[in-house]
Design goal:
InterPro entries: Ntn_hydrolases_N, Peptidase_T2, Znf_C2H2_type. Pfam families: Asparaginase_2. This is C2H2-type domain-containing protein. Strand 1 and strand 2 form a beta hairpin. 40% of the residues lie in helices and 10% in strands. Bound molecules: zinc ion (ZN) (2 copies). The site of one zinc ion has 7 residues, from helix 2.
Length: 174
């Protein structure tokens, strides 16, 4: 069972849950077009944003690296980054596509006039999540699921596991 974190609905598969949170009212994966300045234009899916950019901002689209508008990298363009990050794992914050996406957004914030989120909202959305991802210095590696991942501490030991993740999550000892 996959429980929606925004309403009481349950779903049999992760894909069903994703299909449920994408449209309104949740619009959990909505992303902005960082090349529309007049008004804030957002899209429920990365694919819709991509189609829009290809059509309305042709020259820009042709100059973009192919990995800029992937679903994972569009975390950096997400209006609700904490929701977005629950469904899609963001690209590494140090990757060139992530850095470029953030600089495009910061540029957009400077030029735009009717944005629904302030610069601080954007920065918090990007980095507050990093804190959640690494709650303790012992945390090793990275996991898209809260409470999962691996831990190691000098003098205590380390624990890792592999196998059927969905089954293991049910018996998560932490
Ligand atoms: Zn829901
Ligand atoms: Zn646009």
């Amino acid at each position: 069972m996959y429980q929606c974190w925004l309403c009481p609905s349950n779903f049999r598969t992760r894909r069903d849950l994703k299909n449920h949170v994408v449209p309104k009212p949740h619009a959990a994966l909505s992303v902005v077009c960082p090349w529309c300045y007049e008004e804030e234009k957002s899209f429920n899916r990365t694919l819709d944003l991509k189609a829009h950019v290809e059509k309305k901002h042709k020259t820009t689209y042709q100059s973009l690296p192919v990995d800029l508008l992937t679903e994972n990298n569009c975390f950096w363009l997400a209006l609700k980054p904490s929701d977005y990050g629950r469904v899609v794992s963001p690209t590494d914050s140090h990757s060139s596509s992530a850095i470029q996406a953030r600089s495009i957004i910061l540029e957009w914030i400077k030029k735009g006039s009717k944005q629904t989120r302030s610069k601080d909202d954007w920065l918090n959305g990007w980095w507050k999540r990093e804190v959640i991802k690494s709650p303790t210095p012992e945390r090793v590696g990275d996991s898209p699921v809260m409470g999962a991942g691996s831990y190691a501490k000098n003098g205590v030991g380390a624990a890792v596991a592999t196998g059927d993740g969905d089954v293991m999550m049910r018996f998560l000892p932490s």
